[in-house]
Amino acid sequence: MSDLRSAFRQLAKAPGFAVVALLTLALCIGANSAIFSVVNAILLKPYPFPDSGQLVYLTNTYPLIGLARAGVSIPDYLDRRAGVTSLAESAVFSGVSLNLADTGTPEQVNALMASPSLFPMLQVSPLMGRTFTDVDARPDATKTVVLSYSLWQAHFAGSAAVVGRDIRLNGEPFMVIGVMPADFYFPSLRAQLWIPFVFSDKQKSDDERGNEYSTMVGRLKPGATIAQAQRQTDEIQRRNAERLPAEKPFWVSSGFGGIVTGFLEQNVESVRAMLWLLQGGVMAALLIGCANVANLLLARASARERELAIRSALGAGRGRLFRQLITESLVLFVIGGALGLVVALWSISAMGAFGFAAMPRGFGVQLDAQVFLFTFACALVTGLAFGALPAWVATRGNTADALKDAGARATAGRRHLWLRSALVVSEIALSLMLLATAGLLLKSFERLHDVSPGFAPENVLTAQFTLPAAKYSTPEKQAAFCDGLVARLGALPGVISAGLTSTLPFSGQNSQGSYAIVGYMPPAGQPAPHGMIRHVSPDYFRALGIPLLRGRRFGRQDTAAAEKVVVIDRVLADRYWPGADPIGQRIDRNGDGKNPDYRTIIGVVAPVKNGNLEENVTKETLYFPLAQLPVRNLTLVVKTATAAASLVAPVRETVLGLDPEQPVFDLKTMDARLDETLAKRRAPMLLLGIFSGIALLLAALGVYGVLAFSVGQRQQEIGIRMALGAQRADIVGLILRQGVILVVLGVALGLAGYFALSRVIGQLLYGVAPTDLATLLLAPAILALVALGACLIPARRATRLDPLGALRSE
To answer: 0.70 cut: is pTM over it?
Structure first.
């Protein structure tokens, strides 16, 4: 307790030192806590069900045709459910959109068709009622639904009476059998309700293989591993290849198989590397800040050398003095950590602007027990590490010498200088690594931002909707709604063109399939043609601004009764008709040789990026006329002459005017969709830029502190030089040389450290090499200029010393 009281007294005696040190620590520890709250929420925190770390995905893969991960078919699921004995339980689910028109304005809700085994596998129980049983998944069973807590509260006011009553989904009655707890979500917060996944006999047959619109998830048995589950999955595929010889050639040529991956690992794989880089960057800023505080502590130790010498002479041992100094450091760092929590709380509320909430599981970013523990650990570890160095140096001096020289200056000054210089060199090195990385991320982002997606996203509004099967049961009814909707939208003021598509770029949707080309036989061992599949209305290409390169687009004449046609992209044309005209060539849409669907190529359009701007379009795309192949899940694409967002209300009213029970959802401009794909790069880039700026400032303060301390220690030497005729320029050069040495050593060490990590950083860049010469020259130049400015202040101070006063003080 006496050490604690002494620590607080010492801080009170030096308020300037305390304020500077505490602000530095609060900023650096707070930034670390804020970023760790993001890393913890997205990458580390378990899901809200028991032993979520045991959950795995079992997905299909076709690596030889460029499809690294696909869904599973119902036969795949049934095979693996029975044959992967490493699983204690498994389930299958598929996302669907349903129209909820129970009360008031109809609304689109995100639902999950799930096998009855889902909730038992997750080991969760409902808040009210029950979950599904096998009886609910029979084709003749009463339709049932389980509600999420949020939907229950929003639409049914949290009434317990909702359990047992019917609600209308897609125009059909579904009986509510349960409500899930408030903290439950699966697989994400988007799922608002769950309905049973009903398998027909056809879906369970081998004919259904390849129809992969579902997702399989399982729970490993205690002690089982992903590697064991993978081996068993591979064995199932080997047996199926022997049992189904007709499928084997395609499976071999496409590399078909199953992949087992961790549930959390797969969900966050797109942001993991960038978030860890961000955490590493803010940790580097923390080390720089702590090095600055350690330098302040060294300066304090020099000023207190007489005090420590007197205490030592009175009988205090080195261990006792060390304990007091380390206690003072810990008090300083712990208070800094407490203030850091305030900074973190403010930072988390401000980070919404950086787009973290849009990342997988980003909604869970908050200050929780793990973040508090991390903050305390940061304060404790850095307090011990960076407090021990000054304490050790301060307590190893000679007491007699300190008492003799205490009247003029601290004898430990020169002894401390090497340690302070080493800390500053480390600060400069870390600052350079941060600055170079931030610069490369900025350059990479600019390159990516300038990439064309293959279409014109400006002034384009998009909206999704799903036509209920019960109400739009025939292709004719679906076509009538679509034609009427496009006609009405086209008549709205400001609308240039309006189209429909089954799969919109940058919406998270995708659809792929195999096909055949008439007259083309793949070489032995080569896979059959495989491409992206899109169903579009005639004006879709104009609305999205996809350039026509050859032939024609779809027209009103391409009806269900007309010749079957297809439009392809340049990737497909160049792959199978290099240097030739593909117009008039024919493909078989089904490609299985059993039920041919021959279509004539009438046009070639430019390739379009689908998932993100980084992707290299190597997979071909085939467009089919919606009138000939109608689908119920569609997206509106409306090109406007004015701001697209201004048409949100008119588009919604137009749809409801055509069908009062048909909602639209996910209304966004195309620019907004592209912007969302850049969020995972923008946030780390901006934050690393901020951290590198802070690190640069702290490094400059460190250089200034060391040189100012050096000038104070070298007053006699400077006085003698000036008395012997040294000019002001000579004194400035003397001090600057010392600063330049620190900067050169720091830059060299920083470049070495950066190159050691460049391979990792290179994986996060687009369109720029990790060894980009311009950036790697600019970063040291900026650092050198800032450090030079920091050197000039103590250098000018040295030139203003009075030679006689400096000599007299010695």
So the answer is: yes
